[in-house]
Design a protein that fits this description.
The complex is a heterodimer.
Chain A (H helix, E strand, L loop, with lengths): L6 H4 L1 E10 L3 H12 L4 E5 L15 E3 L11 H8 L13 H21 L14 E2 L9 E3 L6 H11 L3 E4 L1 E9 L2 E9 L5 E11 L28 H9 L3 E2 L9 E3 L7 H6 L3 E3 L19 H13 L5 E4 L5 H15 L3 H8 L8 E5 L7 E2 L12 E2 L6 H19 L10 H16 L6 H15 L3 E2 L1 H18 L7 H26 L9 E2 L12 E8 L2 E8 L2
Parallel strand pairs in A: 1-2, 1-9, 2-6, 9-16, 17-18
Antiparallel strand pairs in A: 3-5, 4-5, 7-8, 8-9, 10-15, 10-19, 11-14, 12-13, 13-14, 19-20
Helix pairs in contact in A: 2-5, 2-11, 3-4, 4-11, 6-15, 12-15, 13-14, 13-15, 14-15
Chain B lengths: L2 E3 L9 H5 L5 E4 L4 E4 L10 H5 L5 E3 L8
Classes of the chains: A alpha/beta, B alpha+beta.
């Protein structure tokens, strides 16, 4: 193991009990969980924990059952709904056993915990939660934050109060592994270029489950998108490289409905709460696609809208003109504005007044999915590596909390930190900084835009095997050019490393999609397998590598 | 258009540069003022404006989002 290289001379070494990679909602809750177990805890993120992640500039909705009595409001229904093998698969549930322990049982206590740290929820005059129904949920499971714009800031305040440390403006580029045990991670400061070696007894992977900059919506801008554009698949790439099994890349790939030209969350919930989705003929087209019309699952809203546009019945619109002033005010000001702080500018600059105007909508870019394959204790196949991060805020808060708790418990098994593989550190350091040493080469934009040319063309809403095999071939070609990217400063170095991860992530996503030979469970269709195949109903596509060779299998997860 | 910072109001406290999740705002050390160095990478999330306590930031969406 020893190479004679003095590790301390390579960069700054930072040690912790639990190392949490990613400071978004899941990472912050993981830190709270780990601190409550008494672990020395460190969060690393490219941004600040007050503002990073998909909820960084606000989030309005918290989805949960409340156990108030009816069947639709129970723990059992929550687990059954989310783990049903239908179009809800995109949440990343893995199995009812994993989900029930790590998430369902945590959802209601988590709501109370959020209230305890200053997040307020809209309530009715009798003190009960004001609840609404969307997304094909079995009941009105959406509670809404009054001060959702400050959600992340309040959460970060609690993380700091609990005593977790942070290393901010640091990009993680790989996991450290010693003898099948994850022993830390490697990264660099995006502002000053300082190289970091993080050593830890256990690691929580929470770098984000929504990979962006893969495809674009109609505005052609990869940075104007549904989720945050600063996550390009690092979580999946570094886990795969370390030897972890990753899962559901294709099943968790998602899209949504956007206001035309504007990358922002909120439209599907808005429609589900009473607005109509209409086509150019003024028809409420969702009635033709689902018995609950606009309250259908997100995947149904997306594919129906895609179909309407493809068959020439666009443009499409949101029609909210029939709603009462009170409902409209609640839906716009209490929800949309809390979900995304710049909706008021969008409405003002477009001259839109939803009380009298139709609002044009479109189908968003496709957002890549995937997560670690974990057991009910949120543990991966690699010792010391944890992280259960289903998609959707309430679910990932609970998954994050469970992951941090379990990771902290695991640290008790180790008396001291595991060894660091010095060779791996030196090799990764060289890879990270190569673009800034180059005097000539391509810009990161030159190369990254070509990834999207391939993904937009071959990996859109309708795809097939031949196209995807072609995509794999082209992505491999692009990967060769990634080695010629030049960076003039540390910001560009960060983007260059994001591009390096993106081209790798896209190949993993194509491989996973090739394996699932059916349509109807994902946000895309396969033109070569148009029907839902029940033999796939409980199967998950798992990717990993052995001796550098990619492995794939479709398995049922216990 | 990226965020527009009102230089008359701005105190160069740096909170917007720290809060920007995309690292697009940096403090210019010569002029001691935050500058939007990478406007094409702005996701228009509003984090800079939420962070600014003196209301010195205005968000203007680019033409591509209006057509």
């Amino acid at each position: 193991m020893s190479t004679g290289i003095e590790l301390a001379s390579a960069g700054r070494i930072v040690e912790s009990g639990v190392l949490i990679l990613g400071g978004g909602a899941a990472g912050c809750m993981a830190a709270i969980g780990a601190r409550e177990q008494g672990a020395n805890t460190l969060i690393v993120d490219k941004g600040m924990i007050e503002s990073c992640g998909c909820a960084g500039a606000g989030n309005a909705n918290y989805h949960t059952h409340l156990n108030t009595g009816p069947d639709w409001d129970s723990d059992e229904t929550a687990t059954k709904y989310y783990s049903s093998p239908g179009p809800t698969g995109g949440y990343g549930i893995l199995s009812s056993k994993v989900f029930d322990r790590a998430v369902t049982k945590q959802l209601i206590p988590m709501l109370k915990r959020l209230e305890g740290i200053g997040i307020e929820f809209h309530k009715n005059s009798d003190g009960s939660y004001r609840r609404t129904q969307s997304f094909g949920n079995p009941g009105p499971w959406i509670t809404t934050m009054k001060n959702g714009k400050y959600f992340k800031r309040l959460l970060a305040k609690e993380v700091r109060r609990k005593g977790a440390e942070t290393a901010e403006h640091v990009m993680i580029t790989s996991l450290l592994v010693d003898n099948s045990r994850v022993s830390g991670a490697i990264g660099f400061n995006i502002r000053n270029g300082e190289f970091y070696i993080f050593r830890a007894k256990s690691v929580v992977l929470a770098l984000g489950g929504s990979q962006e900059r893969i495809t674009t919506s109609s505005n052609g801008n990869p940075f104007s998108c549904w989720m945050r554009p600063y996550n390009t698949g690092s979580a999946m790439v570094i886990a795969y490289d370390a030897g972890a099994k990753i899962v559901d890349l294709e099943l968790m790939t998602r899209a949504t409905i956007l206001p035309k030209g504007f990358g922002a969350p909120g439209m599907c919930a808005f429609a589900g709460m009473g607005a109509y989705m209409v086509n150019a003929e003024g028809e409420r087209y969702m009635k033709r696609y689902h018995p609950t019309a606009e309250r259908a699952p997100r995947s149904v809203l997306v594919l129906a809208s895609y179909n309407e546009l493809a068959e020439g019945r666009g443009p499409l619109y949101i029609d909210a003109r029939h709603l009462s002033e009170d409902d409209l005010r609640h839906m716009i000001e209490d929800r949309l504005y809390e979900d995304c702080d710049t909706y008021p500018e969008y409405f003002a600059q477009r001259g839109l007044d939803l009380r009298k105007d139709l609002m044009e909508i479109e189908v968003s870019e496709l957002v890549g999915g995937g997560m670690l394959l974990v057991n009910e204790r949120c543990a991966s196949n690699l010792k010391g590596l944890f992280g259960y991060t289903p998609a959707q805020l309430s679910l990932t808060l609970c998954g994050g909390f469970s992951s941090g708790t379990e990771a902290a418990k695991d640290t008790r098994k180790l008396k001291e930190l595991t060894k660091v593989n010095n060779e791996q550190v030196i090799e990764e350091k060289s890879k990270i900084f190569e673009p800034i040493r180059r005097t000539t080469g391509y810009t990161w934009q030159d190369i990254e835009s070509k990834i999207r040319l391939v993904m937009n063309f071959y990996m859109g809403f309708i795809r097939n095997e031949q196209g995807m095999e072609t995509a794999l071939h082209r992505l491999k070609l692009i990967e060769r050019y990634v080695n010629d990217i030049k960076a003039d400063n540390y910001h560009e170095l960060m983007r260059a490393n994001e591009t390096r991860h993106l081209v790798r992530y896209c190949q993993l996503l194509v491989r996973a999609t090739l394996e699932r030979k059916e349509s109807g469970r994902c946000f895309y269709k396969r033109s070569d397998y148009l029907d839902l195949d029940e033999t796939w109903s409980n199967k998950h596509v798992i990717l990993w590598q052995e001796n550098g060779e990619p492995q794939v299998s479709a398995e049922t997860i216990e | 258009m990226p965020p527009i910072i009102d230089e008359d109001k701005c105190t160069a406290c740096g909170v917007c540069a720290a809060a920007c999740p995309g690292d697009i705002i940096h403090i210019n050390s010569e002029r001691n003022i935050p500058m939007v160095l990478y406007p094409d990478e702005c996701c228009h999330c509003g984090n800079c404006r939420i962070s600014c306590e003196i209301d010195a930031i205005k968000i203007v969406l680019p033409l591509s989002m209006l057509v």
